[in-house]
Amino acid sequence: MDGRASNKDRISSKKNGYGIETAPIKAENDIVVLMQKAVEHELESLGFKVGPGGLQAKIELQTFCNDFKNGFFSGDAVAEVAFNFTVTRSDGSYIYSRGCRGVGMNRNIQMATGSNAKVALEDALTNVMQQFIEDENMRKALVAAGKATATSGVKQPVPGS
Domain for residue 1, yes or no? Predict the structure, then answer.
């Protein structure tokens, strides 16, 4: 789900030497799908089964953008990736909810281009996914909910064996 309020079609803007935006930089792929697949991959790497039935996970993308900061001799690309992750039971009751935010940088760049923004965004994505996967409270909540679901006979996302 895309929760971004504006600029859903762009991830950054090219800037001239005075810091004035000159052209939008657009993503080559669907950012929302990218985030969903990244979260699914991380959940699977923790041993959870991802698929229909069982608990419902919702990923709402909040931010996926880069900004160029001009310096005297060089500049930096500074990116931010943020999303909300919510898990509910089939009846809609909440199990877990959390916001995750990662920041990435590409330092000492000479031009505000898409390739420089990409490096910073990849760094931010790596940071936010690391924060997500290291969340012990999320793992405990999903395991506990999976065990409760197992006793009721409903399919669940249980850590793999």
Answer: no
